[in-house]
Target: Peptide ABC transporter ATP-binding protein
Amino acid sequence: MTTAPPPLLDVRELSLGVGDTGRLVVDRASFQVRAGEIVAVVGESGSGKTLAARAVLGLTPPAIRVRGGAIRVEGRDLATLKPAQLRALRGGRIGMVFQEPMTSLNPALTIGRQLEEALALHTTLDAQGRHAAIVAMLQRVGLSDPDRVLRAWPHEFSGGMRQRIMLASVMLPRPALLVADEPTTALDAVIQRDVLELMVSLTAESGTAVLMISHDLAMVARYSHRVIVMCRGEIVEQGPTEQILRAPAHPYTRQLLGAMPRRREVPAVDPADPPLVEVRRLVVDFAGRAGLLRRGRPQRALHGIDLAIRPREVVAVVGGSGSGKTTLGRVIARLQKASGGELWFDGRPVRAARGAAWAAYRRDCQMVFQDPYASLDPRMTVAQSIGEALRGTGLDREASAARVREAIQEVGLEAGHATRYPHELSGGQRQRVAIARAVVRRPRLVIADEPVSALDTTVRAQILDLFADLQRRHGFACLFISHDLAVVEQLANRVVVMHQGRIVEEGPRDQIFDCPADPYTRRLLQAIPALEPTPDGGVRLRWRHDDDTSTPGASGTASGTAA
Model:
């Protein structure tokens, strides 16, 4: 009888504390990762998942102290290693992919210089061998012109391409363990899936194990063999991915699974109603990049867009980065000038609105932004921020104060929040304030631009429920902009799919999700699962419109049921 090989990574009773205080941010965490295995650590902000992973590399912040336990990599206790030995281990035997590659790529060095340095530090290859290895790896990660990439600078690439370059840099020394901290959170659905499949493929080829940090349970279901669930610094549950998702044992795991977006019934809208908002042949051009002796060529962001939104209707605009969806929302909100076309509201042209007509449009059209911290004045309390939106409505001070109190209550905040400032609130609470500020004027149209993309799973679910409840209660129409089709499926009456500044498909929600006609829509939908509840309080995930059965993952295939 053969014994199993020792784990590649063995974490025993790890405790991390803040400074000299008694507060623990990771409390007696124990887990293992074996060679070739993909293990996902999931949890919300503050769960301790990122700190636990960074401790594996010796990269915890200065204020965080190891209070107990041991971390062994390939049998070596990290606490016994000298700084030089730890540096050799980090980047050589252990690689790390961060959430935002621009924080780990040096903006002052070309890509070629950075890849060359990484390889020279951790291998014995000569200059010619290093160059050949770098070119081969860049081609392997899908960058078809490696010579141009090597001469370029980090800022010249999109987020998805930068993450591919980071993967190339980390995988060049062929590490035994890859730590990936939310590696695709900032990317849209299609690029996210492409990058993850590339990462899984690269690590499978080299036999590299992966410790993946994520809050995205759908991603975890597709790509991991085992799952570790963390809550408030403790591991509350761990086991095979399929087992955890289908039959979660801990209430917190069930809460996370229950918060995943899923299709719900939405109020019907009469298609015979005249449009509240109508966009006709809308064109937007941005000034191109100019040189010393040449003018910049205009870049077209929107190509002749036609769109109608009826009263009480939720129209979702979805697409990847650069699709033009945010530009469309900003034009309708009059935050961006159009280069051509028409915008009508309630049967009247908006582009030429002045005076009272413009004031009425500002009252009737409100916007909720992605980052409430950037849209709320840090010098104003919650009550002042919401009350500011009521200026020009004709309400006296007493009526205005009553409306503010009502709005605070409506969005699920307590009366005591009225005197707090934005920095004293959580991300979810700040977004509730932003929503209250938008609906307090009783608008007829709300434009929501990625309003939940920066929130944790359970907070996102609460905000979506709140938004749907307010929309039904007040009856406003909504243009909901998102790259996340799972969120859209929960809210929308109708879905508009944009790609490279054009509408490629639009129709009722169920039609778009169940019978997509355009190949790009199918690619977007392939990145999200359909959820089916299990009798044990878990979920069964079915991958949609997925003809590719080659994707590695916990269940062995990418099509059919992943977990």
